[in-house]
Q: What sequence folds into this?
C-alpha cells in the first residue's frame, strides 16, 4: 500500500517548567512511500524519526497535515484500524506469554467477520513463524530467547496479521554487531518475499543504506534529503547529509574559491568552472583521494591503518575540520612511512562544495 | 585492628538494647505466659502450666464473637479494597490532567488520625434522638428507612466498619498500585494498541499479569492488616467493643490485658498467639496458591 | 467509495469512544475523591456550626451561613485539648529524635563497619521484622507496669524507639554512598563518628527526612500503646484524648466542639503531608505500613 505524508507537523508541549514554547518534533514533513518498498528513516537521536513512525502507526496524531494510506485519509484513525504491524525497539514481547501466545495475540483481537477459528489462527501463526524461522521456539518464553530470536518473534507477531504496512523502530539496535548484519539481511529478505510496504527507523546510516530502497535523512524534525541510498551518498544536498552518510566520515576542509580554482590555504586542489569567489566548506569522501607524488594536496602523514583489502591513510591538514583526514586507498599502493608528508590527487566526483554560512551544497563543475 | 573490631558493636548497642528488652524478650515471654495457668499479675504467681489458657479463650463467647467479626471484616474488605484500588489506580494512571491533584487527595486518609476521622464517620452514620444523621438522610432520598448504623443491627454496624476500613486502607493500595502500573513499559500498551486489543483484554492479558506480584503483595499485607483491625472499630463504636458486639481479635487481646475485663495477660497471650497462628496460616495458604498459579 | 465511508465512521466512533471513556474516568475519580474528601469537609463544616443550630437541625445542612469559632474556644477550654496536643508533640519529637540517633548508629554499623558476628546479627534483625506488634505488646505492658512506669513519658516512649524496618531502609541508603569516600576519610584520619556526621548524614539526608516524617506520622496517630499505658488524662495523647472526649468530653452531645477538636488534631499532619508530599508518598511506597 502506498503511504503519503502530506505536510505533517508534530509539536509537543514543553516538558520544562520554565520554557513554555512547544517542542517541534517533526516539521512539515511531506513524502510519498511507493507500494511495496522498504524505506529507511535515518537521523541522529531526537531528530523526529520515531515520532514520524508513531504517526504513521497511529500511536500519535499529527498536529498538522495529513497521512494517506492509498487514497484513504487515516490521519486520525486509531492504530488498530490502520492494518499496520509494528516492531518496537525493545520488541515489547509480553514476558508472561510463550512465543506462540505472543504471535497469536494480535489474531485473538480480531472481531466480527474477521474472526478466525482456532485452527486458522494456529496455521497463520505457524506460517509467520516459518517465515522468520522460529518454529522450534514456539513454547518458550521471551526471557529464554536470545536477542536475535526475540527480534524474530517480534517480526512474526507483526506479520501474522498480514498488515498493509510494517513499521520497525530501531529494529537492530539491541543486537550485537554480527547478528545485526545477519538480521538486516533477513529483514530485507522477508520484506522482498512479502512485498509489504515497510518503514524502518534507524540512527545507523550503514544499516539504512544497505537495505533500503529509499532513505529519508532527518535532522531536528526537518527532512534533509530523500532518495535512493547511493544517490543520496553521491549527491548530498548539504553538509549535514554528507557528514551523516558514509564511514569513515567525509573529510571537511575550510577553503575558498578564487578565479575558477578551489583552494585550501594556498594550495589549489581543483579547478571549477563558473564559480563565484566565496568562502567554502569542502567535503572530500575518503575514497576520493588518489595517492600521487605530484598531487596538489599535501598533508602531514600520521600513520596508516591496514584493513586488508584497503588501507586507510591517516593524515592531518591545517584547514581540515576533522581531527584527522582519513583516505581509503587500495592496498596495492605503497605508502612511504618514512616520509612525513603525503601527496594526494582528488577524484572530482567525490568532492563536494558547501556554502560556509548555510551549509547548503553548491553545485559546481569540478575538474 | 582488634580495637576497631568491637567498635561496631558499640554503635549497635542502643538498638540491641531496645530490641532485646522490647521485642526479643517479650516474644519469648508471651509463649511462657500463654502456658502459665492462673497467672496473677499482682503477685506474679501462677499455679500450673498447660493448655488451659487456650481452652478458656477458645470457649469464651467474646473471643468467638471477635473471631467471627474479624473474619467477616477480612473477607469483605480485602477483596473489595483490592478491586476498588485496582480500578482507581487504573483510572488515575490513564489520565493526564489533574493527575497529581487526584493522587494527593486519595492519599490524604493515610496521614489522618484513625480515631479522629472515625469520629466523623460515626457522626455521619449515627442516628440520635435529634437527627437521623446524614447517611440516613441520603437513604431517605431513596425511600429507605432510617437505620442506626452505630448502635443498631449487626449488619449495619458491620457495614460501617467495613466501609471505614476500606476508606482507611485505600490510600496505601492506590499508591502502590499506581506505582506498579507506572513501571509497566509503555511499549507493551503501544504494541497492544497497534494490534487492536480492546481495553478489557489489554487489562486482563497484559496489565494484570505484569502487576500481579504487586497485587499479590497487597493481598497479603491486606490480610495481615485486616486481621489486626482494632482502632477502626474503637473509633466507630467506642472502647467497650464487647458490649457493642463489634470486638476484633486484637481488641480482645487488649481487653484481656487491660480495661474493664482486664488483668489477664495469660489469656491475652493465648489469644495473641492464636491470632498469630491464624495470620501465619492464611499467609502460607496465600503463598501456596500463588506459587501453584505461577506453575500453570 | 464504500470503504471511504467506513473509515470516517470508524474515526468518528473512535473519537466518541475516547470522549466517553474520558468522561467515565473522571466521573469515577471524582466520585472517589468526593468520598475521600467528604468526611474532611463535614468535620470542618460541623466544627464551625453553632451548637444550638446544629442541634436543631433535624436534617443536616450541607453548609452554614454563620460560621463561628466558638467551638474551637470550647474545645480548648472545656477539655484539656492543649495538654493532649502538647503531650503528643513532646512524645512525637522525643521518640522520633531518639529513634533517629539509635537507627543511624545501627545502620552505620551494618553498612560500613566490620566486626565479628555482623552478618548473623543482621539476619537476626531482619527476622525481627516479621514479629507482629500484638505479640510483644503484652509483655511490654507487664514490663512497664512492673517498672512502675505507667503514666510516665518514659513508659510511653521507650518501647516505641526502635524500628527494624527503618534501620534496614537507612542501611540500604548508607550502602549507596561510595566506599571510596570512607577510605578517603580514613586516610585523612577521620574518626568513624566524625565521618558519619560529616559525610554520611548530609549525603543521606533525604532518606533520613523521609524516615523522620514517617515516624512523626506514626507517633502522632499511635493509639494502642498509649491507651494501655496511660489512664491519667495528664498523659493522654491526641488519639486517647479524642476517645476520652467522645466518651466523657463535652457531655457527649456537643458534636460541633468535638469536630473542632478533631480538626485541630488532624491539621498538623495534613499540613506536614502537604509540605512533604513527594517524600512521604515515595517513602510509603518503599514499604511503609499504616502506623
A:
Amino acid at each position: 500500500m502506498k503511504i503519503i505524508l502530506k505536510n505533517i507537523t508534530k509539536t509537543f508541549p514543553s516538558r520544562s517548567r520554565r520554557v513554555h514554547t512547544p517542542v517541534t518534533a517533526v516539521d512539515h514533513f511531506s513524502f510519498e512511500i511507493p507500494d511495496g518498498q522498504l524505506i529507511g528513516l535515518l537521523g541522529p537521536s531526537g531528530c523526529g524519526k520515531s515520532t514520524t513512525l508513531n504517526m504513521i502507526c497511529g500511536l500519535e496524531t499529527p498536529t498538522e497535515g495529513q497521512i494517506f494510506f492509498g487514497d484513504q485519509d487515516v490521519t486520525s484513525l486509531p492504530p488498530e484500524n490502520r492494518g499496520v504491524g509494528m516492531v518496537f525497539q525493545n520488541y515489547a514481547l509480553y514476558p508472561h506469554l510463550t512465543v506462540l501466545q505472543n504471535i497469536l495475540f494480535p489474531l485473538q483481537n480480531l472481531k466480527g467477520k474477521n474472526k478466525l477459528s482456532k485452527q486458522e489462527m494456529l496455521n497463520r501463526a505457524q506460517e509467520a513463524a516459518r517465515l522468520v524461522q522460529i518454529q522450534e521456539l514456539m513454547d518458550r518464553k521471551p526471557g529464554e530467547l536470545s536477542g536475535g530470536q526475540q527480534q524474530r518473534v517480534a517480526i512474526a507477531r507483526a506479520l501474522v496479521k498480514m498488515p498493509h504496512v510494517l513499521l520497525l523502530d530501531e529494529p537492530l539496535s539491541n543486537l550485537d554487531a554480527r547478528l545485526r548484519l545477519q538480521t538486516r539481511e533477513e529483514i530485507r529478505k522477508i520484506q522482498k518475499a512479502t512485498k509489504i510496504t515497510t518503514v524502518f527507523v534507524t540512527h545507523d546510516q550503514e544499516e539504512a543504506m544497505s537495505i533500503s530502497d529509499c532513505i529519508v535523512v532527518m535532522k531536528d524534525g526537518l527532512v534533509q534529503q530523500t532518495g535512493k541510498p547511493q544517490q543520496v551518498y553521491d549527491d548530498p544536498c548539504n553538509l549535514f547529509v554528507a557528514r551523516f552518510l558514509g564511514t569513515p566520515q567525509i573529510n571537511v576542509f575550510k577553503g575558498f574559491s578564487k578565479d575558477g580554482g578551489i583552494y585550501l590555504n594556498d594550495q589549489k586542489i581543483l579547478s571549477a568552472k563558473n564559480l563565484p569567489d566565496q568562502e567554502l566548506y569542502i567535503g572530500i569522501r575518503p575514497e576520493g583521494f588518489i595517492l600521487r607524488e605530484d598531487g596538489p594536496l599535501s598533508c602531514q602523514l600520521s600513520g596508516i591503518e591496514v584493513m586488508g583489502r584497503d588501507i586507510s591513510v591517516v593524515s592531518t591538514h591545517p584547514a581540515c575540520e576533522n581531527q584527522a583526514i582519513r583516505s581509503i586507498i587500495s592496498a596495492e599502493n605503497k605508502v612511504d612511512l618514512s616520509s612525513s608528508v603525503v601527496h594526494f590527487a582528488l577524484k572530482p566526483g567525490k568532492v563536494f562544495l558547501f556554502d560556509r554560512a548555510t551549509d547548503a551544497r553548491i553545485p559546481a563543475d569540478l575538474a | 585492628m582488634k580495637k576497631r573490631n568491637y567498635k561496631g558493636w558499640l554503635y549497635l548497642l542502643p538498638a540491641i538494647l531496645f530490641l532485646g528488652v522490647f521485642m526479643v524478650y517479650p516474644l519469648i515471654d508471651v509463649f511462657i505466659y500463654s502456658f502459665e495457668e492462673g497467672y496473677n499479675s499482682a503477685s506474679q504467681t501462677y499455679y500450673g502450666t498447660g493448655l488451659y489458657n487456650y481452652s478458656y479463650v477458645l470457649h469464651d463467647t467474646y473471643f468467638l464473637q471477635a473471631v467471627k467479626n474479624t473474619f467477616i471484616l477480612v473477607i469483605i474488605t480485602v477483596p473489595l479494597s483490592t478491586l476498588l484500588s485496582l480500578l482507581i489506580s487504573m483510572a488515575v494512571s490513564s489520565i493526564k490532567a489533574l493527575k497529581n491533584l487526584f493522587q494527593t487527595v486519595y492519599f490524604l486518609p493515610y496521614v489522618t488520625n484513625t480515631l479522629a476521622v472515625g469520629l466523623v464517620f460515626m457522626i455521619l452514620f449515627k442516628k440520635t434522638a435529634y437527627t437521623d444523621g446524614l447517611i440516613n438522610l441520603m437513604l431517605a432520598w431513596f425511600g429507605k428507612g432510617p437505620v442506626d448504623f452505630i448502635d443498631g443491627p449487626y449488619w449495619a454496624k458491620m457495614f460501617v466498619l467495613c466501609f471505614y476500613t476500606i476508606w482507611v486502607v485505600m490510600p496505601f493500595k492506590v499508591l502502590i498500585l499506581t506505582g506498579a502500573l507506572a513501571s509497566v513499559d509503555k511499549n507493551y500498551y503501544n504494541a497492544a494498541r497497534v494490534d487492536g486489543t480492546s481495553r478489557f483484554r489489554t487489562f486482563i492479558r497484559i496489565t494484570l499479569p505484569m502487576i500481579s506480584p504487586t497485587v499479590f503483595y497487597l493481598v497479603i499485607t491486606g490480610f495481615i492488616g485486616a486481621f489486626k483491625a482494632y482502632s477502626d472499630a474503637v473509633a466507630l463504636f467506642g472502647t467497650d467493643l464487647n458490649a457493642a458486639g463489634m470486638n476484633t481479635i486484637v481488641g480482645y487481646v487488649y481487653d484481656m490485658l487491660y480495661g474493664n475485663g482486664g488483668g489477664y495477660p495469660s489469656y491475652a497471650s493465648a489469644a495473641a498467639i492464636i491470632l498469630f497462628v491464624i495470620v501465619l496460616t492464611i499467609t502460607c495458604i496465600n503463598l501456596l496458591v500463588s506459587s501453584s498459579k505461577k506453575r500453570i | 467509495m464504500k470503504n471511504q465511508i467506513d473509515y470516517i465512521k470508524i474515526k468518528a466512533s473512535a473519537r466518541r469512544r475516547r470522549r466517553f471513556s474520558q468522561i467515565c474516568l473522571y466521573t469515577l475519580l471524582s466520585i472517589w475523591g468526593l468520598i475521600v474528601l467528604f468526611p474532611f469537609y463535614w468535620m470542618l463544616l460541623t466544627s464551625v456550626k453553632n451548637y444550638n443550630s446544629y442541634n436543631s437541625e433535624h436534617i443536616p445542612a450541607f453548609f452554614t451561613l454563620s460560621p463561628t469559632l466558638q467551638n474551637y474556644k470550647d474545645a480548648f477550654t472545656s477539655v484539656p485539648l492543649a495538654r493532649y496536643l502538647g503531650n503528643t508533640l513532646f512524645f512525637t519529637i522525643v521518640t522520633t529524635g531518639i529513634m533517629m540517633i539509635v537507627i543511624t548508629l545501627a545502620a552505620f554499623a551494618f553498612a560500613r563497619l566490620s566486626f565479628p558476628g555482623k552478618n548473623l546479627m543482621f539476619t537476626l534483625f531482619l527476622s525481627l521484622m516479621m514479629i507482629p506488634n500484638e505479640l510483644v505488646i503484652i509483655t511490654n505492658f507487664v514490663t512497664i507496669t512492673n517498672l512502675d512506669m505507667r503514666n510516665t513519658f518514659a513508659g510511653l516512649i521507650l518501647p516505641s524507639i526502635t524500628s527494624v524496618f527503618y534501620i534496614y531502609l537507612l542501611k540500604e541508603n548508607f550502602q549507596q554512598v561510595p566506599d571510596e569516600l570512607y577510605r578517603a576519610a580514613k586516610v585523612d584520619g577521620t574518626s568513624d563518628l566524625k565521618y558519619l556526621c560529616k559525610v554520611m548524614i548530609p549525603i543521606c539526608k533525604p532518606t533520613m527526612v523521609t524516615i523522620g516524617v514517617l515516624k512523626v506520622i506514626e507517633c502522632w496517630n499511635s493509639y494502642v500503646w498509649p491507651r494501655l499505658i496511660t489512664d491519667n488524662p495528664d498523659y493522654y495523647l491526641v488519639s486517647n484524648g479524642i476517645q476520652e472526649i467522645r466518651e466523657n468530653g463535652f457531655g457527649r452531645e456537643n458534636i460541633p466542639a468535638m469536630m473542632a477538636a478533631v480538626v485541630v488534631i488532624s491539621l498538623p499532619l495534613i499540613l506536614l503531608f502537604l509540605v512533604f508530599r513527594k517524600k512521604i508518598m515515595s517513602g510509603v511506597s518503599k514499604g511503609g505500613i499504616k502506623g
Observations:
- Chain C has two domains: 2-35, 79-285.
- Residues 79-285 of chain C form a domain with the MetI-like fold fold (CATH 1.10.3720.10).
- Chain C touches chain A through seven residues (CB under 8 Å).
- Chain C is about 75% helix and 0% strand.
